[in-house]
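dude i think i finally got it to work??
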Amino acid sequence: MNDQITLVECPRDAMQGWPHIIPTEKKIDYLNALLKVGFDVLDFGSYVSAKAIPQMADTAEVLKGLDWEKSRTKLLAIVANYRGAEEAAQQDAIRFLGFPFSVSETFQLRNTNKTIEGSFATVEEMLELCASRQKELVVYLSMAFGNPYGEPWNEEIVMEWAGALAKLGVKTLSIADTVGLATPEQVFSVTDYLIRELPQCTIGVHLHATAHGRKAKIDAALEAGCRRFDGALKGIGGCPMSGSELVGNMDMEKMILHLTARHLPIKIDPSALKEASLLADEIFV
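look at this
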């Protein structure tokens, strides 16, 4: 098995629920610092309703200030509907569009104002758009490890929807622990199944965890064969649309240390990472 790790840094996830608006200039400086680190993918912003997520209202302006052509890092933007996907797909700088697809009807309605079935149709439309614009679609399979709303949930539901998305032509699925409910056993079970049953797809994990549960969840995903990991500096993040207390993203620096300790190949510039971390300390206060 190829042990090369793909690291997806998610400052957008960290910023979107931050309690005060971060000035556009500070976002640009921070993202440009992250572009120097050498992450494989940078989830930098989102083309969504400014009313719903005010922190992301300046994504188009932020993009204009990014030195993306000097970086090996590919940019990813989150979109919540076809209109947002069209806007993002027009940008040469953006390589990936990310769409949150939930196995929870409640969360899908909150997050994209569409039902699960309606969102499935949207994914099909986005795949056609991406093919015509030389973009790639990453589908985040949210609420993949549990449901806080009392709706039916089991691993079979997750696996059925993942299989249906793969059949549509989705090549990258990121399995999201949206509100931090996952146990290491669930992370292994779901990830192992999807990697075995969907060999045509890259299966990643977007895990949320406190410091206490971080290593066990990472190790469970690794044991299942996962090599694509999302995280965010300082472990900040969470979806404000979930209506739940936010559980932060995997702390990227701590995750890098853990993966390195396991002798897995990580392509990052340590000095650039330190500089970005210092900027994060100034922004997230």
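The chain has a mean pLDDT of 93.
im so relieved honestly
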